[in-house]
Amino acid sequence: MEQKKGFNVAVVGATGAVGQQMIKTLESRDFPISTLTLLSSKRSAGTKVTYKGQEVTVQEATPESFKGIDIALFSAGGGVSKELAPHAVEHGAIVVDNTSAFRMDENVPLVVPEVNEEDLFKHKGIIANPNCSTIQMVVALEPLKAKYGLSKVLVSTYQAVSGSGAAAVEELNSQTKAIINNESFEPKILPVKSDKKHYQIAFNAVPQIDVFTENGFTYEEMKMINETKKIMHDEKLKVAATCVRIPVATGHSESVYFELNDNNVTAADIKEILKSAPGVVLQDDPENQIYPMPADCVGLNDTFVGRIRKDLDAENGFHMWVVSDNLLKGAAWNSVQIAESLVKLGIVK
What is the mean predicted confidence (pLDDT) over 38-60? Predict the structure, then answer.
């Protein structure tokens, strides 16, 4: 069957921060689109969005919105995905979902193209985009796992407030101004959008992202643990995470300790592998103070890795610092990348 020159693509949640990034990424990548359908809640319907110089009117997302759609990119919240994704599949669309709604469903592949692109062949209509903090970590770890084997991962994250949405970024900005001007303020959003306590994020670090589970880990931490094992096809892999929100608008950073199955690896070996790893940019020159920082990754699709060093006690242990734009590689770019892989592999025609 001859591949179409253009595909009918829908973006659900088109007016949100990630939805907007999806649209910009589709445009910058010149994704082969025949028709672009932008969908949102009833409240945001009617909004005009510019795509390739043309105004596109955002429509209300309904079960019938997906007739004739080939690929539907979802980023409008888990509830919307659970409600509408099955309808999209019924109409023949392949769904790439950016929420947590289907990530741990055994029938739904959880995909980072640099790591497990082949899992796309197993889809049954829905493909899940992993958690932003998980994506950048597995991009950096997969080339090392493939070469030497991987037994243990301990990660501490330093996550940007944009991971909680545009309102959280505004809260960071307003709190920062208030503190500088010695004015009072009332935190209303972070660490979680709920009726629980809210804390200052400006000039602070909050060791909670999402709510706590019974085992003492937060849901964000459990996402990293469970998703890493699923993406890497290794339920025996030891993974632990501590996720922290810091006063940065965009760009997640991670301190990653990992143990390989080979005791004879050097830091130089790891740098050599990551230097040519897909999706990775190596920035590791401590003598000249060169290492990844979130301020430098904004607007870029890659995962940046540096501070690679051998552990002083464990023969097979190493440390590295991993940074990426959480709205791009952590969300919009990975979703569009999955769509590109679907086309490249001939899965969508």
Answer: 95
Query: Mean pLDDT for the chain?
Result: 96
Neighbours of 240 (CB within 10 A): 14
Question: Cβ-count burial of 287 within 10 angstroms (0-12 exposed, 13-18 middle, 19+ buried)?
Answer: exposed
How many C-beta atoms lie closer than 10 Å to residue 23's C-beta?
24
pLDDT tens for 74-114 read 999 999 999 999 999 999 999 999 999 999 999 999 999 99
Query: Amino acid identity, residue 131?
Result: N
Q: Nearest 10 degrees: CA dihedral of 338, 222, 284, 341? A: -10
| Catalytic option among 87, 123, 132, 243 | 132
Q: What's the N-to-C CA distance of the chain in angstroms?
A: 8
Convert the pLDDT of each residue in 116-134 to its tens digit.
Answer: 999 999 999 999 999 999 9
Q: How many Cβ atoms sit within 10 Å of the Cβ of residue 165?
A: 15
What 3-state class would DSSP assign to 74?
strand
Residue 132 is a catalytic residue: yes
Q: Which of 235, 230, 220, 211 is nearest to 330 (CA)?
A: 220
> CA-CA distance, 80 to 61, in Å (whole number)?
9
Residues 152/237, Cβ–Cβ less than 8 Å: yes
Look at residues 153, 145, 301 and name the one whose alpha carbon lies nearest to residue 221: 153
Question: CA nearest 146: which of 275, 277, 317, 238?
Answer: 277
* Residues contacting 287, CB < 8 A, separation 6+: none
pLDDT tens across 159-195, in order?
A: 999 999 999 999 999 999 999 999 999 999 999 987 8
For residues 107 and 97, the answer to whether their CB atoms sit within 8 Å is no
Distance between CA 330 and CA 327 in Å, rounded? 5
Distance CA 248, CA 266 (A): 33
- Full-model pTM: 0.96
Query: Which residue matches tokens 């591949």?
Result: 3
Whether 297 is catalytic:
no
Alpha-carbon dihedral sign for residues 13, 245, 293, 152: negative
Q: What distance in Å separates the CA atoms of residue 324 and residue 136, rounded to the nearest whole number?
A: 6
Which of the residues 87, 123, 243, 252 is marked catalytic?
252
